[in-house]
Amino acid sequence: MANANVNVDVKALGKVAVLMGGSSAERDISLMSGSGVLQALQSQGVDAQAFDPAERPLAELKSEGFKRCFIALHGRHGEDGTVQGALELMGIAYTGSGVMASAIAMDKVMTKRVWAAEGLPLPRQVVLRRQDCSPGRIAAAVAELGLPLIVKPPHEGSSLGMTKVEQASQMAAAVELAARHDAVVLCEEFIAGAELTCPVLGEGDAARALPVIRIVPPAAGYDYNNKYFTDEVKYLVPSGLEPALEAEVQGIVLRAYRALGCRGWGRADLMLRARDNKPFLLEMNTSPGMTGHSLVPMSARAAGMSYEQLCLHLLSQAALDGGARG
Fold first, then answer.
1. What is residue 7's predicted lDDT score, i.e. its pLDDT?
2. Which among 21, 24, 26, 52 is annotated as catalytic?
3. What is the pLDDT of residue 2?
4. Highest CATH level, class, for 125-189
């Protein structure tokens, strides 16, 4: 775990752009995250300014003398390696994972191929292509995975386009909804149990897992609205897990993070199967939310790091893929 006492030479950080907004389906959440980060950095004396790539050409980052970027973008064109690649070309250091790790983590299908090769615990899955979602293929997915199951677009976050399918008659509509967001539809075995999330700070062998959070959603589920706009969801940190189980979850998350080549920070989501307390990885977020409802700040706070300290620490670790710091 990173030391909660963040000692950063604020002047040395230079002119900082907080990238927020963007053009993805998660634009509104990104604006909330970015506003929080911007306020936090400015409160610590950082020369930070908001920058919305949906409204300004990225080239202005270079021409206006920005020295580093805090990426508070979520979803496509922000979390998928594209902005990271542009910043690499301009030589402007940025927070979070590099081009390859960002691109892979954004694609849940590719992520799970990497994790499967590492022997990490995953729900069973079936991948359907939008142009070939025939009734026969949909029925075969149900037969293979059983019910209930989860249907989701593999390139979206914040539960967008996701459905828990309880009956076979709901499957076609669930696939159609996911296909509106993506050319590929991911059907996943439903793991009955507790929802967990675990953030990571750092890189390589120095990466450290923060405290695990157990998510207790209302009856309506942990959907987009409940994630960001209500107080119906309960977040337990400390998680209440036995210490050995918490350590096991953190160990799995660190292996998952390192396998993808992540750096800076990230957050893995998991399910803990109720019948045997076995953890299953769902996804890795390489540009996690930083809103008032977000989970990384919550976990960091439990480890003794304030929101402002967290933002400053992440910014101080901004880098390029070659390892050069800003």
1. 85
2. 26
3. 43
4. alpha beta
Catalytic residue among 228, 263, 307, 326: 228
Domain ranges of the chain: 10-96, 105-121+191-309, 125-189
Report whether CATH 3.50.50.60 matches the domain 105-121+191-309: no
User: Which residue type, as a one-letter code, is found at position 311?
Assistant: C
158: annotated active-site residue: yes
The answer to whether residue 205 is catalytic is no
Q: Give the C-alpha separation, 278 to 148, whole Å.
A: 18
Residues 24, 97, 285, 316: which is the catalytic one? Answer: 285
pLDDT at 63: 98
The pTM of the full predicted model, rounded to 2 decimals, is 0.92
**What is the mean pLDDT of each successive set of 10 residues along the chain, which is 326 residues long?**
68 97 93 98 98 97 98 94 98 98 96 98 95 91 97 82 95 94 94 97 97 88 55 92 98 98 98 98 96 93 97 97 79
Known catalytic membership, residue 188: no
Any catalytic annotation for residue 267? yes
